[in-house]
């Protein structure tokens, strides 16, 4: 009798615990929807379709300041031919992606050095007349010339100023072009069309991203100055130095090795301790925008930047290889964080579409790769339809749907239904994801 009573009590406790878990999951889902699904006040519309209301407060850090000039921008934009408008937007995305972390100066320096080596004309821009320092290049009593850093102040000023202008200017334009101008038809272009960052999170993203941008611009200025002043590196400018064979082989070697190292670095940052103390800052933005790309912990930012510039100091690399791969990686960093359903081109069979990384932000611990989805397929961290993913489920494996509570399944279904079918190639992928959960709820 006692054994039976103990067993019944245990069963009751389990049922009670299960019910509490389901109620907690339902509450979390409701809070999430309230916090993340709401539209920004300056863009809210009534059901009757009234024009958006605008706020009277000017807040340049919120980026939504472009909403204040929506009608004016729309009026001028409509005067442009469609092909020209699309071309301008494409160029803006490319420039923004290539400059958002301040690396534009490092790219420019390599072009200048290549031109100097080709024409044998001195293009050293760090003269006394420009940097305004003494002939010895003194800064705070330190002789910068000993470290190949003459004119460092000039590089820092130019790097940070131009980077901030491009960050806010081009970023503001792209925000207006998609998130303001086309907000009413988000199902045509947005990966998560029913969800937008709240005004508070949007402002946080810009402020935090701007601070990391300044850090990146400062570090890039040091490296660019060092390279321009003939500091040691393994970058070479004449193909004949190492031959055409190594020139062509170095392209895939650098690209593949970097991407694989970044995959593992990113995955390691998703381990519980590192995620909670470092990477979680970047995952505040469950519906990422282009500004999210720099909104990461400074330690992680420096770590990733070190990986990207490492070929310049590890093995011989032609300047065109280094510069082109850098531009490619930074460009797709913007594309992947844009929240827009960009697709890879036909000549990029290795490149996942933007929804791949958008899924990473939406489901947290899955799809760790950036410019190659093969690593996730190889290591079993590619998103699967029979798994549920949440922020508290680490290691990229998720939770089997057969082991989920009804509340967990309902939350997973809500997430999957919020995805845009147009972000995928074909309709089957999203429908299979949804059907997998619905079948378990029946």
From TrEMBL:
Keyword terms: Membrane, Transmembrane, Transmembrane helix
Q: Entry's InterPro entries?
A: Fatty_acid_hydroxylase, Sterol_Desaturase_Related
Localization per record: Membrane
A Gene Ontology BP annotation from the UniProt entry? lipid biosynthetic process
The segment(s) forming the Fatty acid hydroxylase domain are: 252-381
Instruction: Report the superkingdom from the record.
Output: Eukaryota
Name the Gene Ontology molecular function terms of this record: iron ion binding; oxidoreductase activity
Question: Chief subcellular site?
Answer: membrane
Q: Name one Pfam family in it.
A: FA_hydroxylase
What are the TM regions of this chain, as residue ranges? 80-100, 154-180, 206-229, 244-263, 306-331
Gene Ontology terms: cellular component: membrane
Return the annotated region ranges for Disordered: 1-28
The name this protein goes by in its record: Fatty acid hydroxylase domain-containing protein
Natural source organism: Petrolisthes manimaculis
The beginning of the lineage is: Eukaryota, Metazoa, Ecdysozoa, Arthropoda, Crustacea
């Amino acid at each position: 009798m006692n054994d039976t009573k103990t067993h019944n009590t245990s069963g009751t406790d389990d049922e009670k615990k299960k019910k509490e878990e389901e109620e907690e999951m339902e509450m979390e889902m409701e809070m999430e929807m309230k916090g993340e699904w709401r539209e920004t006040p300056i863009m809210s519309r009534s059901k009757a379709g009234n024009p958006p209301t605008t706020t009277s407060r000017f807040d340049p850090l919120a980026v939504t300041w472009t909403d204040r000039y929506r009608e004016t921008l729309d009026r001028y934009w409509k005067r442009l031919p469609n092909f020209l408008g699309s071309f301008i937007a494409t160029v803006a995305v490319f420039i923004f992606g290539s400059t958002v972390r301040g690396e534009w100066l490092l790219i420019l320096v390599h072009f200048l050095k290549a031109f100097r080596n080709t024409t044998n004309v001195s293009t050293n821009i760090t003269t006394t007349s420009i940097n305004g320092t003494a002939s010895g290049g003194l800064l705070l009593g330190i002789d910068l010339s000993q470290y190949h850093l003459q004119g460092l102040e000039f590089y820092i000023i130019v790097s940070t100023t131009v980077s901030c202008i491009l960050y806010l200017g081009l970023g503001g334009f792209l925000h207006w072009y998609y998130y303001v101008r086309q907000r009413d038809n988000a199902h045509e272009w947005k990966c998560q069309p029913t969800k937008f960052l709240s005004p508070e999170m949007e402002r946080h993203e810009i402020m935090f991203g701007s601070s990391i941008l300044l850090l990146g611009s400062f570090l890039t200025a040091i490296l660019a100055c060092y390279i321009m002043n003939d500091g040691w590196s393994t970058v070479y400018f004449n193909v004949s130095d190492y031959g055409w064979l190594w020139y062509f082989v170095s392209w895939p070697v650098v690209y593949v090795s970097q991407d694989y190292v970044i995959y593992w670095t990113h995955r390691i940052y998703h381990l519980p301790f590192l995620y909670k103390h470092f990477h979680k800052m970047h995952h505040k933005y469950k519906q990422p925008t282009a500004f999210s790309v720099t909104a990461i912990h400074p330690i992680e930012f420096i770590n990733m930047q070190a990986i990207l510039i490492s070929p310049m100091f590890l093995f011989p690399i032609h300047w065109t290889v280094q510069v082109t791969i850098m531009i490619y990686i930074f460009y797709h960093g913007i594309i992947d964080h844009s929240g827009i359903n960009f697709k890879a081109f036909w000549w990029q069979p290795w490149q996942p579409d933007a929804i791949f990384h958008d899924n990473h932000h939406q489901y947290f611990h899955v799809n760790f790769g950036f410019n190659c989805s093969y690593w996730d397929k190889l290591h079993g961290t590619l998103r699967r339809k029979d798994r549920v993913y949440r922020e508290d489920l680490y290691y990229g494996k998720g939770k089997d749907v057969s082991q989920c509570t009804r509340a967990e399944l309902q939350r997973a279904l809500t997430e999957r239904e919020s995805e845009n079918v147009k972000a995928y190639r074909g309709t089957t992928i999203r429908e299979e994801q949804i059907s997998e959960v619905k079948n378990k709820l029946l």
